Amino acid sequence: MAAAAVLPGREPGMSPGDPGPRPGRAPARTAAPETGRPPAVTAPSPADERTPSGLRATARIRAAPDGRGGTALPVLSGAGPLALRRTRKQGPRATVTIVGAMSAPLGGDHLTLTAHAAPGAQLTVDSAAATLALPGPDGEPARYDVALSVEHGARMRWLPEPLISVRGSVLRQSIRVSLAPSARLVLRDEQVLGRTGEETGRVTSRITVHRAGRPLLEQQIDYGPGVPGWDSGAVLGEHRAVGQLLVVDPDFDGSPPPPRPLGDGASAAVTPLAGPAVLVTAVAPDALQLRRMLAGAGRFTTW
């Protein structure tokens, strides 16, 4: 994939598997006051901390109505490799794009991103490129934790580009979602197992969704070296891309989409959940075909 060749923060000539330099954040300096005293030096932000085992970074997004029919972003705080940019506005919806400021996650890293939509807000979160899970120097696993919360009458679209599991990497990803009864959600989660012609790393991804305090979805996938049968015909077979599209919409109450295969083959399926939600699961030979299948399920979204 073209996105896999862009690794911000690396020196020219370094291979994608080389963790490269991981500079820490320099202390911030404030402007010198008029009294002539030297500028104060503040400690590095706790949201971006480099430890012997890897990088610790936390990014935060909060969306709220702006009082003029749109959505404001009172909190937009990136850290480490998670740089956040407000990229465009579409009617009442605000869009935040995650831009990789350095190669991450490497083995030993722990990245956290939280996104909160206050009552009535409309928020889309996407990313500028695919995320590469890379091996670290000590063989430690990396962690990437995402927490999403959507309050009454709010709408959130979580639509990042795929996660690519690079050979030798170990990543544990979790996505936790909390929804109010009238909240709406579109969540896309895609994994690509290895780059072109490359063996995959180990990836474990868990999605947990609660609506009105009650469980709506609990799902975990586990692929790669050390997982029995993951590449057998009973699981993925020859496929190396897998994804899910979750749509939660109160309009599904009483009339959810029926369960059925999606597309020409049996590599995608539509499953209504025990609630106003539908889950589309797909496997494909590569990321392009996977995205096409999940895009075809977009008609379940009416907002």
Automatic annotation (TrEMBL):
It is found in: Cytoplasm. Its main location: cytoplasm. InterPro entries: UreD. The keyword Coiled coil does not apply. Pfam families: UreD. Keywords: Chaperone, Cytoplasm, Nickel insertion. Residues 1-54 are annotated as: Disordered. Residues 25-40 have a biased composition (Low complexity). Required for maturation of urease via the functional incorporation of the urease nickel metallocenter. Belongs to the UreD family. UreD, UreF and UreG form a complex that acts as a GTP-hydrolysis-dependent molecular chaperone, activating the urease apoprotein by helping to assemble the nickel containing metallocenter of UreC. The UreE protein probably delivers the nickel. This is Urease accessory protein UreD. It comes from Streptomyces ovatisporus. The lineage of its organism: Bacteria, Bacillati, Actinomycetota, Actinomycetes, Kitasatosporales. The gene is ureD.
